[in-house]
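Quick one, tokens below:
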């Protein structure tokens, strides 16, 4: 048994969320669906209570706990991507299925869970020992919603990032 599992609270859509993540991300799957053995404050006996799943290899438990608590930006999944195409694919899947865009590579899925779709080129640029290049890449990122790999690369090399 896994010793550490992330528990994510949903109103009533944990199973739909888990299935979406399993369809969207590699190394992701739904492993179990458990139904409530009796009535509870936000559901009835037989309703889906918990869903065990993995997202990018990370074990998670979705709990249908009701509307009392919601997701916030204080927790997010950060997905490292290798290309603009991969960045676009994940971003478009999340935003295009009822989610919403935010700034600097952040978006939310339709359940309010935050995601950071982060191209490795951005991570490398921000960690660069060339402080001026890192600052240019950071400034370019601050103007973006979905990260534009070409603009980050141009900014890092000394361009304006307006490619």
């Amino acid at each position: 048994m896994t010793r550490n599992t992330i528990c994510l609270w949903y109103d009533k859509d944990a199973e739909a969320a888990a299935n979406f993540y399993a369809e969207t991300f590699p190394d992701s799957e739904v492993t179990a669906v458990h139904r409530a053995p009796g009535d509870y404050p936000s559901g009835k006996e037989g309703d889906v209570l918990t869903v065990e799943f993995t997202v990018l290899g990370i074990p998670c438990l979705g709990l249908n706990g009701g509307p009392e608590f919601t997701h916030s930006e204080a927790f997010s999944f950060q997905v490292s991507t290798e290309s603009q195409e991969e960045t676009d694919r994940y971003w478009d899947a999340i935003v295009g299925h009822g989610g919403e865009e935010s700034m600097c590579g952040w978006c939310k899925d339709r359940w309010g869970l935050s995601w950071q779709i982060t191209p490795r080129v951005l991570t490398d640029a921000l960690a660069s020992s060339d402080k001026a290049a890192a600052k240019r890449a950071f400034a370019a990122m601050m103007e973006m919603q979905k990260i534009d790999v070409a603009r980050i690369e141009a900014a890092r090399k000394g361009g304006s990032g307006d490619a």
